[in-house]
Model the fold of this input.
Amino acid sequence: MVFYFSGTGNSQFVAFRLAELLAEEEAVSINQYLKAGGPAAFHSERPLVFVAPTYAWRMPKVVSEWIASAQFDGSRSAYFILTCGGSVGNAAAYAKALCEKANLHFRGLAPVAMPNNYVALSNPPGEAACRELLDSARTRTAALASLIQREEPFPESPVSLQDRISSGPVCGLFYALFVRDRGFTASDACISCGKCARRCPLNNIEMAGGKPVWKGHCTHCMACICGCPAEAIEYKSISKGKRRYDIYEITEDT
Ligand SMILES: Cc1cc2nc3c(=O)[nH]c(=O)nc-3n(C[C@H](O)[C@H](O)[C@H](O)COP(=O)(O)O)c2cc1C
Ligand code: SF4
Ligand code: SF4
Done:
């Protein structure tokens, strides 16, 4: 069974491809479960595969918390695939610890390089570079699907001291100091379509007087800012003039 969380579509792209290759009926959207709230219980005789972006060299906190709170019945094997713009650091160690807590059998964590969507911090790559990354992600996803099909573990990657620091203290500081929604604003270009509010996986955006209002419970997934059809949303002055990244503008193939 394939599960995914996704802000701007990269992880959904990989999850859909994986579900197809593994002949799964569908990929389960963790976004929808988070939006709906309430309990989540699943039965699967086949391995569980979790696909998510990398946030500060780890699986997003909202995803690990959701996995810890959900009920999984049947297969206990759990594979993790993190789409990333560069590096997943020591994310595997934290996914392994999560499995111990959730009584799942950790089968490995594999990165898949994708366009970096973090417009609140860095510059997403240009369109040609994005297309190249998506092509290599297709090949990489096929290779990971065959390992899962054969129920073989994902190979382990070497972990440096820098990886341990990035996924450990730096990740903690990142959430404590940087993951805030106070920097988001909507300009007069806003056409009051409500897409940002519909897209937010945490229901953190409310429409008031035709404009979005951010309510203080954000995970920096970039779905609102990157999905706005009028490019009306900015994050402080950091995002000004930057290209927004959204996979749906790169490929129809999702
Ligand atoms: C809050 C945040 C933190 C990120 N941290 C990392 C990181 O530590 N390492 C990395 O390689 N990419 C990082 N990225 C890039 C994303 O992981 C990457 O673009 C991912 O494929 C986005 O997936 P999505 O479109 O499914 O949301 C970060 C992006 C965001 C929004
Ligand atoms: S998605 Fe953009 S245009 Fe639509 S309501 Fe939100 S800010 Fe306004
Ligand atoms: S407010 Fe925007 S960045 Fe924050 S969680 Fe919602 S969609 Fe993601």
Remarks:
- Residues 127-149 form the longest helix (23 residues).
- The mean pLDDT is 95.
- Residues 56 and 170 are 7 Å apart (CA to CA).
